Amino acid sequence: MQSFMKVRKIILLFFTFSFFFFIPNAIQADELSDLEKQLGDLRRALEMSKTATTPLEKNLDKLQVNLEDIRRRIGSIEQNIILKEQQVKEGEKLLVLAQELLSQKVRQLYKNSSSFGSSALFFLFNQNLTSSLRQFGYQKAVVQNDRDTIVKVVLYIKDLEQKKKDLEDEKTRLSKIKEETDRQALFLQKEITGAKKYQAELSSKITQLSARQKLLLAEKLASLGISRSAATMGRCDSDLTNGRDPGFGPKIAVFTYGVPNRVGLNQWGAYGRAKAGQGYDQILHAYYNFDGYQNFDTNIKINVDGYGSFSLDDYVKRIYEVPGDWPSDVLKAQAIAARSYALAYTNNGSGSICATESCQVFQPNPKGGAWEQAVNDTAGKAMVSGGKPIKAWFSSTHGGYVRTSGEIGWSDTPWTKHATDTSSGIGSFSDLQNNAFDKDSPWFYCDWGSRSQYNKTAWLKPEELADIINALMLVKRDAGTTEHLYQTDRPNPAGTDTWDIGRVKQELNNRGITPYNNISDASVSVDFGSGRVTGVTVAGDGGSNSFDGAEFKNFFNLRAPANIQIVGPLYNIERK
């Protein structure tokens, strides 16, 4: 109980202490700096809350186990009491019967004794003395035996009654223990529920305060100029295939599977599926949840920003999303997806649609050829869900997995799906490379970004990766340092000083943490079912450390130089 009260004091202390973290700091002039300071405070408060909650949860688990054991024991005792009560009742019936028999024997003995007393001389002088004595002794022995039987029955009943009383006493004591344990469990559950609610509020605030960082990451991602459309994409300048030497070694790079928007139709995946013999219907069902197809009026007008109005299918004939020489079933699937998207986006023509990749790529002249034939073959056909056309998003390369719109940060939608986009199961990167339907895409496996001073490659020096790891370790120890840990080759977005490699090492040493000078090995742990990295482990002169996969990705993108970055949840680290 004392340890319980001690834990309670801890939880009350962290609630009291955490209050001070919400006092605004008037000294901070820059908005982002102020937000980052609050973010660090909130993270520390959240960590304190979790630290204080952990022993409570352990105590609650132990109490619940004990409580369940007590319940089982009380149930067993109640069954024993019922059994003992039945045995006592049977014994009492036996006692009544034995007493009745004894009474009869006693009455008979009395009669015999009286008769013997009045005519003793008669027996002595008229019968054989030995025979008379033998008869008298026999009668006396029978009565004594009956008395012994009754005594045994009485003792048996008393023993049962004592056992019943002992069981009832134990049940009473256990009931009191159960009542107290229930009370403690209820209290702890209430405290933990309150702490969890508090932690959820902190996490929500932390997410909101991280919006500025998300904006920086989005701007960095946009600088890569990744095309969403297979028809307009260039080639991923993969440093594994281009053979360019950065001029140093050893070298390390992070390679991502697929491009950022992995929702809906995987254009290169559709290409692989068509090559494997799948028709357009099978292709579309692989990437969307929908009820079926509906033929819409091809004369519906689609208003295109900057280009005027076109009938539905004349509009689709001017869409440039996939190469015109791809298999006809890919073109038909893309035509139906483009038509569905345009109808949904414009609400069946009542609105307008842009002409860029932000919507779908439109050009004023018809594409012609096999593409026009595919549009004619699917005239007016669109995918519908609940009687309405679906907003059929698509992109060039998913990297072996299809995501829902909610998984990539958009609003969740019922027609998008999560699926493995491969011809067979995936248990390794090798399986993914061999079995993904979009494996032929030039953007299937890429390291993104480059630096002109290193022959336009995205390779990092071991000490540069060590710096990223050092910065990540520092911010995990002290979230208040975040504003100093952005890219060293660009202006600090918080308007303060950015700490270089040496300063970060110094700050780690000041906090009792051994920094890395270089990284000798780095590996990832992957959940191939969901298609995401769950953890990253690095080794070097600073020892071995592991990090959450998403955490490593985000901080890598904030600290890595130039526009070098990881663009999705599934990636691998290559060292050459």
Question: What can you see in these coordinates?
Answer:
- The chain is mostly helical and 576 residues long.
- It has three domains: 2-209, Orthogonal Bundle (Helix Hairpins); 227-257 and 444-575, no CATH class; 265-417, no CATH class.
- Helices cover 52% and strands 11% of the residues.
- The protein contains 14 helices and 16 strands.
- It has helices spanning 2-18, 31-118, 120-126, 129-209, 211-222, 267-275, 280-287, 312-316, 328-346, 369-377, 429-435, 462-477, 501-510, 549-559; strands at 252-257, 265-266, 292-295, 301-304, 308-311, 352-353, 381-385, 388-389, 394-395, 401-402, 419-420, 445-446, 519-527, 532-540, 543-548, 571-575.
- The strands form six sheets. It has a three-stranded antiparallel sheet with strand order 12-1-16, with no helix packed on it.
- β14 and β15 form a beta hairpin.
- The longest helix has 88 residues, at 31-118.
- Residues 1-33, 115-127 and 204-209 have low confidence and may be disordered.
**CATH architectural name of the largest domain:** Orthogonal Bundle
Q: Can you count the beta strands?
A: 16
The residue-averaged pLDDT reads 81
Quaternary organization: single chain
Radius of gyration: 42 Å
Strand content: 5-15%
Number of domains: 3
Relative helix content = 40-55%
Order of strands side by side in the largest beta sheet?
Answer: 12-1-16
Q: Which consecutive residue ranges, at least 5 long each, have pLDDT under 50? A: 1-33, 115-127, 204-209
Helical/strand content category = mainly alpha
Helix-strand pattern, N to C? HHHHHEEHHEEEHHEHEEEEEHEHHEEEHE
CATH topology of the largest domain: Helix Hairpins
Number of helices: 14
What does the largest sheet look like?
A: 3 strands, antiparallel
Distance between the termini: 59 Å
Cα shape:
elongated
